[in-house]
Design brief:
The protein has 153 residues and is an alpha+beta fold. The chain is 33% helix and 29% strand. A hairpin with a 2-residue loop joins strand 2 and strand 3.
Length: 153
């Protein structure tokens, strides 16, 4: 796959099922040791009924197949998931650049401390760890880290 074959666009409601499957496969591959707070069907419902229709959701597609998804919420990069076979092709880079363009005042995000590849990815993109927690405030009860990106730093 060449990066030229990638289309990045706002998600349509018709993308919700594919978005959910990308989220589920990516979570399972990246975070096998993290307890899931919701069933697959609950995740599908949340993405279909709440996230895709009501939040700024973006998809990356190749030949009209959803291969990645991202959710932005007023300066928060809330979700960024790449389908495992598509990792390493620059798709995450494209989505983070889009997030930065759309949030020129800066971005924050949370990731689990155990997710070393995600932490390296965000740090490579200029995000700085600003807070570490014991996981008490997230549904998974998993220690996490808040990252901040400030333009010009």
């Amino acid at each position: 796959m060449k990066i030229d074959d990638l289309d990045v666009r706002r998600a349509a409601e018709s993308d919700a099922a594919a978005v959910a499957e990308v989220w589920l496969r990516s979570y399972a591959a990246a975070l096998p040791s993290v307890r899931r707070a919701h069933t697959d069907d609950e995740v599908r419902y949340w993405l279909r009924e709440i996230v895709v229709p009501g939040q700024e959701t973006w998809v990356a597609t190749v030949e009209e197949t959803v291969v990645a998804m991202m959710v932005l919420d007023d300066g928060d990069l809330d979700q960024l998931y790449i389908d495992p076979p598509w990792r390493g092709h620059g798709i995450g880079d494209r989505l983070v650049e889009l997030a930065k363009q759309r949030s020129a005042a800066g971005l924050t995000l949370w990731t689990f401390q155990v997710n070393a590849p995600a932490r390296r990815f965000y740090e490579r993109h200029g995000f700085v760890a600003a807070e570490h927690t014991d996981g008490e405030r997230n549904e998974e009860r998993e220690p996490d880290v808040r990252y901040v990106w400030t333009p010009g730093e």
